């Protein structure tokens, strides 16, 4: 059985996280499959593009439909296409005024989208279909960050938004077929808009792929019913820029731009952990009944830090305590059942037990959603324990199982959690907990 467990872990885990930093920005991406059988959202995150653009960063969210062929391919290829354009190669050749540099970047981006879409059309995956023509497409919502500017580049109905000075200063426009200009282009190309959808089917009016709507021989790429032309929005960078969110419609269908940005701002008062912020955005969407694949990418600038050093210290101590409690709970839950049939707790059980222990000890989580706001921390602790356990168990199963049966900590006998959460209280608690574990091992 042990050999099959890593695969189980992969199947169970429908939420994935990516995080990193570089070029003065921090980022995190959270991708959640939602209630769907397949995951068609993809992302890319490049903190430093290839020379001579190494001081530029590029992030994007792609929401695929009718398969993930287009979204996956685009996520890997898009930067290559716009960086290779003639316009981009002119950029650093001589000192050009800002307006000319901006023009080159915009034309380079547009060319990149058009050329990538053309190359996509020729791929064998796009041709393989039983007669009705090539299938599948994807949105693209991108952020290109240069030392001077932030560009939000959008094709389709995913959305990018920039918050600076606590306000939404830039937001992309969703390409819906019912918008007057989009509808006009669609109808000129011989298609109609029914039930807000192109041809009664496609929910967006611009995308990568979707070649069945890009096949009128007399029209160029920008005049077809579905156009690959991105909208490009620019912002001149300031030290007060806080964060960018890029998300698929799994988020935006149930949340307003301003409201989500305000929520994120509030969460940043309680955490510096971008992964947990992205996870909470998805939790909120799920609570509002989003069943779609949902992806949130967050790119944060230094001004996004809203916690005071004291607050950060307290939050770090609290997180450490929650981690320790979760570790104990997992041990306890696993040891509750027979050793041959190790009980693997689910996230709800863990949340519930952790909350109970915190409540009984009078420890409150000082944010506006209680322990639910720490879901990501709990999930991460649990996943780390599971992956450590699995790798050990695969290497030496009998040794690990016998160790498990010897540890058996009991929650009833564990030391009380500290009432005040700070570094000293945490140190005292860790000491008491270790002494208790020693006693248990001794007895
Ligand atoms: Mn979607």
What topology emerges from the helices and strands here?
Blueprint: H1 5-12, E1 15-22, E2 25-32, E3 41-46, E4 57-65, H2 69-83, H3 86-90, H4 98-122, H5 124-127, E5 137-138, E6 140-145, E7 149-155, E8 159-164, E9 167-171, H6 180-188, E10 193-194, E11 197-198, E12 208-209, E13 231-236, E14 241-247, H7 249-252, H8 257-267, H9 274-287, E15 294-300, H10 309-336, H11 347-360, H12 375-395, H13 397-407, H14 423-442
Antiparallel strand pairs: 1-2, 2-15, 3-4, 4-5, 4-6, 5-12, 6-7, 7-13, 8-9, 8-14, 10-11, 14-15
Helix pairs in contact: 2-4, 10-11, 10-12, 10-14, 12-13
Bound molecules: manganese (II) ion.
Give an overview in words.
The protein has 2 domains: 15-304, PPM-type phosphatase domain (Phosphatase 2c, domain 1); 309-442, no CATH class. The chain contains 14 helices and 15 strands. It has helices spanning 5-12, 69-83, 86-90, 98-122, 124-127, 180-188, 249-252, 257-267, 274-287, 309-336, 347-360, 375-395, 397-407, 423-442; strands spanning 15-22, 25-32, 41-46, 57-65, 137-138, 140-145, 149-155, 159-164, 167-171, 193-194, 197-198, 208-209, 231-236, 241-247, 294-300. A hairpin with a 3-residue loop joins strand 6 (140-145) and strand 7 (149-155). Manganese (II) ion (MN) binds next to helix 7.
